[in-house]
Amino acid sequence: MIQENLTTINNRILAAEKKSHRAAGSVKLIAVSKKQSHEKIREAFLAGQTAFAENYAQEAIAKQSLLPDLKIEWHFIGTIQSNKTKLIATYFDWVHSVSRFEIAEKLNQYREMMQKPLNICIEVNIDCEPSKSGIAPEDVLPLAKKIILLKNLRLRGLMVIPEKNNAHAFEKTAALQKKLMQAGLLLDTLSMGMSDDFEKAIQAGSTLVRIGTAIFGER
Ligand SMILES: *Cc1c(COP(=O)(O)O)cnc(C)c1O
């Protein structure tokens, strides 16, 4: 089932790339494995999926310890509590949900010099919805300028989780990314799109789609 779902999703990504005149392979699939077992992660890996995302540090690390033989790229996409920054900086390759400088500083501090820099996306609350996580669009550039000075981090781009009824959130995020690049930042990543909306996100320029339910089923 997981294997078939992955094939379906990969074909849909390919079709969406083609439809928006983007190169095949320009969008990377990240399998969101929160609340899924390590057995299911292994099954997806054996079907060719190598990048996985988790929302809870301890849950993720427990599963990682059961998958030591698999060369997985791990992405953290959940809310970051200050007291989890050491675990996150140590056990992940990417963090998509940075929206405060104090958190970035802690991740930088705990990322050991021996490891490769930690890849970072700034989570943006693109329509300034009061209930949502992420930083306001106008505050992104000042935060980005501070993050690029942290030598154990590598700022890659923006992440967004829009509400379902949120028209043009993906386009707005892509436009904000463009503005940051015009301001001199070297960014190559737009983390946007989930099971229900990834084709729209690809149309708007997403480079990483985070998909859980459509691969693993309901959580
Ligand atoms: C859970 C989650 C996803 C995956 O959502 P699905 O609808 O299951 O594809 C993507 N991004 C974030 C930040 C999540 O928390």
Largest sheet data: 8 strands, parallel
Number of strands: 8
Shape: globular
Q: Could you give the order of the helices and strands?
A: HEHEHEHEHEHEHEHEH
Average pLDDT metric: 96
| Rg (CA only) | 17 Å
Structure description:
The structure is a single chain. By secondary structure, the chain is of the alpha/beta class. Helices cover 39% and strands 17% of the residues. The protein contains nine helices and eight strands. The chain has helices spanning 2-19, 38-46, 57-64, 85-91, 101-110, 140-147, 169-182, 198-204, 213-216; strands at residues 28-32, 51-54, 73-76, 94-98, 118-123, 153-159, 189-191, 208-211. Strands 7-6-5-4-3-2-1-8 form an eight-stranded parallel sheet. It is globular and about 45 Å long. Pyridoxal-5'-phosphate binds at residues 32, 34, 55, 77, 161, 194-196, 210-214.
Keywords:
binds pyridoxal-5'-phosphate, 8 strands, single chain, 219 residues, alpha/beta, 8-stranded parallel β-sheet
Task: Compose a concise summary of this entry.
With 219 residues, this protein is of the alpha/beta class. The protein is built from nine helices and eight strands. An eight-stranded parallel beta sheet has the order 7-6-5-4-3-2-1-8.
Secondary structure layout plus pairing:
Elements: H1 2-19, E1 28-32, H2 38-46, E2 51-54, H3 57-64, E3 73-76, H4 85-91, E4 94-98, H5 101-110, E5 118-123, H6 140-147, E6 153-159, H7 169-182, E7 189-191, H8 198-204, E8 208-211, H9 213-216
Parallel strand pairs: 1-2, 1-8, 2-3, 3-4, 4-5, 5-6, 6-7
